[in-house]
Design goal:
This protein is an alpha/beta fold. The protein has twelve helices and 14 strands. Strands 8-9-10-7-11-12-13-14 form an eight-stranded mixed sheet. Strands 3-2-1-4-5-6 form a six-stranded parallel sheet, with helices on both faces. Strand 5, helix 6 and strand 6 form a beta-alpha-beta unit. Bound molecules: NADPH dihydro-nicotinamide-adenine-dinucleotide phosphate (NDP) and the ligand O=C1OC[C@@H](O)[C@H](O)[C@H]1O.
């Protein structure tokens, strides 16, 4: 219990470290709710990263955000986002805009010569994700989808155990991320970005992206097909929203070598008991079944709070493992998934080998199968952006 409290207090309130020479200066596009957790807190304990600027549409909001988080430069108004991208002192952009704006503002950031940490899911469509990652490659810039759960040692350990063959051939992987209302970023707000189609809304986008990434990475291959998929529409909003925006989705996927996978996500996980009034415990799990046994990782999305890796061989002794740091000592037990992610991102920019990485192809694959799942549910794909990069920017590789 004391360990848990100690980990939590350091995770959310790390001791700031001095910044080194060659520190990377990051600008945040939008005073987003997720920015403190995803980059501002992790930056405090990283010597080579600093949050130097924020841009928000409203001047008051931008200034209040900058003051609260000790950010030096503020951009705002109609040109605020572009002014931030044009700032020559900024090396890196963190893009936590609504999903439907990821494509436009990441393209613009890359065109301005910045590395980009891009919130998940990378875009609204597979095609857009491909364009972004190809453009980043062409420009020689680092672009990373911030699918933070992939960077934690607990997730990597599960993959390592499966790949070691100790449990035999992999047969099935399941991943769930189902939480009661109020536990997700949308809070009470039915007008949240998550429910606007144009902005890339839908819970398969918002939360299903983690479960899909988890099964694809664990299996280490791309799906062959969607076997089945169904989605529950939101119970509010317009008729159009109820046809296209899911509050929960489940899907079964076929992979090569007769491997199958199931994913399930829900952001207003119904309660149980009389009138469904009793809230259900969040179901956040990764589970792999092999010919010789089973392995589960409880809480694969927020493993720093707690997690448990259970290995249950058919013939052998059951064991439990925990992996708060990497075996070679990399990391701290209190590092959040976001802190591991930042470590990898900075390593990549600095030309060092990150402990783990999400390639562009992996992110593009996630968008492809999010789209396939949406098609199979009948909710349809998310609309692509109308933004087009100028010919000059396309041609420029500097
Ligand atoms: N990694 C993680 O754990 C999480 C990731 N996310 C991801 O982060 C992103 C942002 O999520 P979240 O922080 O909850 O979002 P917010 O509701 O806080 O919105 C983010 C920002 O979008 C900007 N914005 C620009 N245009 C619009 C528009 N037309 N309508 C609404 N907002 C607009 C706002 O900027 P301004 O300040 O300029 O007004 C706002 O600050 C999403 O991609 C989401 O998937 C979200 C939660 C957790
Ligand atoms: O990325 C996310 O993870 C946690 C959820 O609260 C949130 O809705 C989602 O955007």
């Amino acid at each position: 219990m004391f360990e848990f409290i100690g980990r939590l207090s350091k995770a959310f309130n790390p001791t700031p470290v001095p910044k080194s020479d060659g520190v990377l200066r990051c600008g945040i596009l939008g005073a987003a709710k997720i920015a403190p957790l995803a980059v501002i807190i992790p930056t405090k304990s990283h010597s080579e990263f600093i949050i130097s600027a924020v841009a928000a549409r409203s001047k008051d909001k931008a200034e209040a955000f900058a003051k609260k988080h000790g950010i030096e430069k503020v951009y705002s108004g109609a040109t605020g986002y572009q002014d931030l991208l044009d700032d020559k002192d900024i090396d890196v952009i963190y893009n936590p805009l609504p999903n439907g704006l990821h494509y436009e503002w990441t393209l613009k950031a890359l065109a301005a010569g910045k590395h980009v940490l891009l919130e998940k899911p990378s875009t609204n469509t597979e095609e857009e994700a491909r364009i972004l990652f190809e453009y980043a490659d062409k420009k020689g810039l680092v672009l990373l989808e911030a699918a933070h759960s992939r960077f934690h040692p607990a997730f990597i350990r599960v993959k390592e155990i499966i790949d070691s063959g100790e449990l035999g051939k992999l047969k099935n992987v399941k991943s769930t991320l189902c939480v009661p209302r109020m536990m997700v970023g949308e809070g009470k707000n039915d007008n949240d970005i998550r429910y606007q189609l144009e902005l890339g809304g839908g819970i398969m986008m918002d939360m299903g992206c983690y479960t899909l990434m988890a099964v694809r990475t664990t299996i280490g291959a791309e799906p062959l097909s969607v076997i089945s998929a169904s989605a529950t529409p939101i119970a509010f909003g317009t008729e159009e929203q109820r046809k296209t925006i899911d509050i929960g989705t489940e899907a079964a996927l076929a992979f090569p070598s007769d491997v199958t996978a199931e994913i399930q996500c829900h952001s207003r996980w119904p309660g149980w008991g009389p009138f469904g009034l009793l809230p259900r415990y969040p179901d956040v799990k990764l589970e792999a079944t092999c010919e010789g046994g089973k392995i589960t990782l409880d809480n694969f999305v927020v493993p720093t709070l707690y997690h448990k890796i259970q290995v249950v061989p058919i013939n052998g002794k059951k064991r439990t493992e925990w992996a708060y740091t990497f075996k070679d000592g990399t990391g701290e037990d209190w590092w959040l998934t976001y802190r591991y992610q930042l470590e990898a991102f900075v390593d990549k920019i600095k030309g060092r080998q990150p402990k783990t990485w999400i390639t562009g192809e992996e992110s593009i694959g996630n968008m492809k199968w999010i789209e396939e799942i949406y098609k199979a549910t009948g909710f349809g794909v998310r609309p692509k952006s109308s933004f087009v990069l100028s010919e000059a920017d396309v041609a420029s590789t500097a």
